[in-house]
Amino acid sequence: MKYIYGPIKSRRLGLSLGLSLSTDKICDLDCIYCQWGSVGSTVSERKEYAKAFEIIAELKSWIKINPQEFKELKFVTLSGLGEPTLNTSIGEIIDQARAITGAKIAVITNSTLLGDPAVRKGIVKADLIVPSLDAVKEQIFKQIDRPNADIKLNEIIEGLIALRKEFRGKIWLEIMLVAGVNDDLQHIEELKKVIELINPDKIQLNSPVRRPAEKDISAVERSKLEKIREILGNKAEIV
Ligand code: SF4
What is the pTM of this model? Predict the structure, then answer.
């Protein structure tokens, strides 16, 4: 299978099937912690990197081959290799995946394109959106996420705020914390102010455990993660 991965059973989503909207890593960021490694280049142009009809055809074949797992499926999650909102067919894929499976749809996004109303229009059809925001300071953003030159931090933040207003489903904001890069408590206080404007349903704190793109990065110690969780308040959890 080229586009399907899993299914994976998780405490939060139940049985979830992953759909990648490209066959290679296509991303407008080059995060130092990326589990897919660094491809050394980024793209910011939106296009149909994988055809919607091919992805949906593969989903139909998976259902035929896996009738038992299909019965138990709770979510179809759009993420996979790179950034799913770079695929211009994301809205259509959400509609069709829901119609075929009857499952809920989740989108995992790096938030970079949320400033574009066309992107938001596509993904507000989902049931759950898990956007990420690792930094609110330009220098830290560039250090941790190494964005394409077309990607602007202020547009990401404005896009997240606009998404909250337009989207009726749940938003679980994810923050990937890397020791010595974005875990300074002053930066966390700044993040907190921005998060209050975004008003997500949950804040998920993560720290790299899988083999990251850059070898010399480290996870944040548990005691510091607890401290950060405390600062960010009731909605925050360590995942
Ligand atoms: S946004 Fe995701 S896929 Fe893209 S570089 Fe960062 S971690 Fe990797």
Answer: 0.96
